[in-house]
Q: What sequence folds into this?
């Protein structure tokens, strides 16, 4: 038989105070209501000694809050990056005294709907609806008025929901500036997209926005992209194939790879052709994959801030719940540059 749960009344009796006084002290309002320090200490000592824990269900019934958040994602922690996003969300929730419930939809719309209903049934105070890869989504309709924030996802149609995404446009600008600052102005090719904004993988928000940022900076500098190769699946084998085909026609001076996996394939193609990075060809990329700092030379890349994205989504959600939101609906999280060894000044 399990031991009886220690109640607030038990703590009050042990401390020799009323139940309301014990409640005020344990909710952090003792000093505000001028309860003496000695009484507060006696109440807290009794609570600690007895192993008292507040009944969150009862508190939720009284306040209308359960101090819980639902986190529904298409993928759960199958990579370091995904894990970092969830870690950021968990830690931001914990810092504010909230508990995170996590569910995985596996990209199944029906399962996603069931998970959202399950979160509602548990009376969560709000929900983060997340994607592990930035994409456009159809926002599911919910019959219940719970605060929702979209994380790493953009609604396909107009929606009042707040959105938290990486600043991919600025990331594209950053990658372009890295090459310009190294002195590159000719022979710059894209691997993964382009060179036109029409030549991007279907439904890829990152592809479009990174390309927009790259083109904007080069246009301002009067630099014309030498070419681009569309890769529909951003994996090493596609980066290898696209770079090998490019090398059959010309020798580039620099490559902008649309993600690190493409860059790994490009590295191999360049090596097969007897070219070295960065002496013969500079390479800059995006994402900061766990291997980007291990390949040789170490890959210069613009990092996806997964941990910061997770934290920001919960912070935005809690502001919505608390009624302190600024009204801003689109939140872009900066993508930092990991400046390593794969970019050098072009040979004359």
A:
């Amino acid at each position: 038989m399990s031991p009886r749960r220690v109640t607030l009344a038990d703590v009050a009796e042990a401390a020799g105070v009323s139940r309301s006084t014990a409640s005020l002290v344990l909710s952090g309002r003792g000093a505000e209501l001028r309860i003496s320090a000695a009484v507060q200490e006696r109440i807290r000592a009794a609570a600690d000694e007895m192993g008292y824990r507040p009944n969150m269900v009862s508190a939720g019934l009284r306040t209308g809050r359960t101090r819980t958040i639902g986190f529904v994602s298409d993928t759960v922690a199958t990579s370091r990056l995904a894990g970092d996003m969830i870690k950021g969300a968990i830690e931001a929730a914990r810092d504010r005294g909230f508990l995170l419930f996590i569910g995985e939809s596996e990209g199944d719309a029906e399962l996603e709907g069931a998970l959202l209903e399950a979160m509602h049934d548990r009376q969560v105070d709000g929900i983060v609806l997340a994607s592990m890869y930035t994409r456009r989504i159809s926002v599911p309709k919910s019959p219940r008025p719970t605060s929702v924030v979209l994380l790493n996802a953009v609604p396909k149609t107009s929606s009042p929901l707040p959105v938290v995404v990486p600043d991919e446009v600025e990331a594209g600008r950053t990658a372009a500036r890295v090459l310009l600052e190294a002195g590159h102005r000719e022979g710059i090719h894209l691997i993964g997209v382009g060179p036109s904004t029409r030549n991007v993988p279907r439904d890829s928000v990152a592809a479009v926005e990174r390309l927009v940022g790259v083109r904007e900076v080069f246009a301002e500098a009067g630099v014309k992209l030498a070419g681009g190769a569309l890769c529909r699946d951003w994996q090493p084998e596609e980066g290898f194939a696209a770079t090998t085909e490019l090398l059959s026609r010309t020798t580039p001076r620099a490559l902008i790879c649309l993600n690190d996996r493409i860059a790994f394939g490009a590295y191999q193609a360049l090596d097969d052709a007897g070219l070295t990075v960065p002496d013969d060809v500079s390479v800059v990329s995006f994402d900061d994959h766990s291997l980007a700092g291990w390949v040789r030379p170490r890959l210069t890349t613009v990092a996806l801030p997964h941990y910061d994205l997770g934290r920001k989504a919960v912070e935005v959600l809690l502001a919505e719940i608390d009624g302190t939101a600024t009204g801003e609906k689109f939140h872009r999280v900066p993508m930092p540059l990991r400046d390593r060894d794969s970019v050098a000044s072009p040979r004359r």
The chain has a mean pLDDT of 89. Residues 205-221 form the longest helix (17 residues).
